[in-house]
Specification:
This protein has helices at residues 25-30, 150-179, 189-210, 212-215, 219-253, 267-288, 308-328; strands at 14-15, 19-22, 39-45, 63-67, 71-77, 88-93, 103-110, 113-115, 119-124, 128-133, 138-146. The protein has 329 residues and is α+β, with helices and mostly antiparallel strands.
């Protein structure tokens, strides 16, 4: 609130948890000749999007509409002349994952629907969007994305079938390596754990995709699942690397590797390496960017380069494995 006795040169930005507003309240007060005062109320409703749903935003094209911000309201109180001297800017933090291919709209509530009249997007990035409006009302940020085509549905079915077939063969391979020890000198620890890691990873992936709509409602659960998937897939690559090293030593020495004779290759030691490396990478990644887990597909997020927490170690493993193959050649 400002009045005749206020000597502010600039009204400070009004902030809530997920949004802020810049309004020229001083100039508005000057236009009120009688009182020379003005007051603004800025409110943020954390769950209002459950009532004023993005589906109330009518568009000419059939798209998927997602509420990207909390619903806010701005109104002038104790002000006789409510005409704005210049547009009001709102900075809205994204409460859901940003899709670079989506279309953002700054909207306001008009009786029974969301409309865009008088509002526009000034700038945006993966974290927040700045909206500019020439009037005050109840506002929100809505993103439109294209609906998946029929071909995407067929691809999902194909993906489901392939994962199920893969699980069957992972199980058969695991039984083979665990039960069919054709030579006591052969160390199958790496192969068994490789199958275990990939079997669990693909099983969790399959269950997550089948119940994605339910899991996505619980952001913490979605983030935990993405972290576990990160660990399992990464440990699969680590075990692949360990198997490559064992194969390299086997061929280099022209003899079979025996975990009993080689203390450095004991099963327990290999298990510590196979799972600890992946666990350390996931722990460091979560510590550096705890919000990097829990995308729309319950996987690691692609923004801010967080995807390199998985792609980086994988590239290193593949590069070293390729070097071992070249050395064998």
């Amino acid at each position: 609130m400002v009045g005749p006795s206020v000597t502010l040169d600039k009204i400070p930005r009004l902030d809530t948890t997920n949004c802020s507003v810049d309004i020229d309240l001083i100039e508005i007060a000057k236009n009120n000749n009688e009182t020379r005062s003005a007051a603004v109320a800025f409110m943020s409703y954390n769950t209002m999007e459950n009532l004023l749903k993005p589906d109330f935003f009518n568009t000419s094209t059939d798209t998927i509409k997602t509420m990207m911000s909390t619903v806010i309201s701005v109104t002038l109180l104790k002000t006789t002349n409510t005409k704005l001297t210049k547009p009001v800017n709102f900075t809205l933090k994204h409460i859901r994952e940003f899709d670079p291919d989506g279309s953002l709209s700054c909207v306001y509530w008009n009786i029974s629907e969301w409309i865009v009249d008088g509002c526009s997007v000034l700038k945006t990035n993966s974290s927040y969007t700045v909206c500019s409006c020439v009037h005050l009302s109840t506002f929100a940020l809505i993103m439109q994305t294209s609906r998946p085509s029929e071909s995407d549905s067929k691809l999902d079915v194909l993906n489901l079938v392939c994962v199920i077939v893969g699980l069957v063969f992972f199980s058969l391979a695991l039984l083979t390596f665990a039960l069919c020890q054709w030579s006591p000198g052969v160390n199958n620890v790496a192969r068994i754990n490789l199958c275990v890691s990939l079997l669990l990873a693909h099983l969790l992936f399959l269950l997550t995709q089948q119940f994605l709509s339910l899991i996505r409602r619980h952001q913490v659960l979605c983030a935990v699942i993405s972290g576990v998937l990160h660990f399992l897939f990464l440990s699969g690559f680590v075990w692949m690397f360990i198997e490559a090293v064992l194969l390299f030593i086997c061929v280099k020495n022209l003899s079979q590797i025996s975990s009993k004779r080689k203390g450095v290759l004991r099963s327990g030691f290999l298990c510590v390496i196979g799972y600890t490396v992946a666990l350390v990478v996931v722990a460091v990644s979560a510590g550096v960017n705890p919000k990097g887990y829990g995308s729309e597909q319950c996987w690691i997020k692609m923004d801010k380069g967080f995807n390199w927490s998985f792609q980086g170690p994988v590239c290193v493993i593949l590069a070293v494995s390729t070097f071992l193959i070249m050395t064998l050649y």
